Q: What sequence folds into this?
């Protein structure tokens, strides 16, 4: 399989997650949003790690370590409580 398709899918997932976060900045997070925001970069890093491992043999372990860190951050993003925005940051008080 061509790794370019997986890289493209990862970038699209990150773009969709970013669009959802920007469109609803004070909305509640969800597992879908966490999967898009953290899964997209994880897929990108895993794909590039595989590519570099098979082609040059270098710089792949750092990418896998970053994948593990992103996976942990994605799980934490789902399980951490959501704090409501502070009253002074509402548009009506600007």
A:
């Amino acid at each position: 399989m061509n790794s370019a398709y997986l890289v493209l899918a990862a970038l699209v997932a990150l773009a969709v997650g970013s669009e959802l976060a920007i469109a609803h900045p004070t909305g509640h997070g969800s597992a879908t949003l966490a999967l898009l925001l953290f899964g997209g970069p994880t897929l990108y890093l895993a794909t590039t790690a595989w590519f570099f491992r098979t082609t040059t043999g270098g710089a792949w372990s750092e990418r896998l370590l970053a994948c593990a860190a992103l996976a942990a951050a994605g799980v934490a993003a789902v399980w951490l409580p959501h704090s409501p925005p502070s009253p002074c940051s509402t548009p009506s008080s600007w």
Q: What stands out?
A: Helices lie at 3-23, 31-55, 61-79.
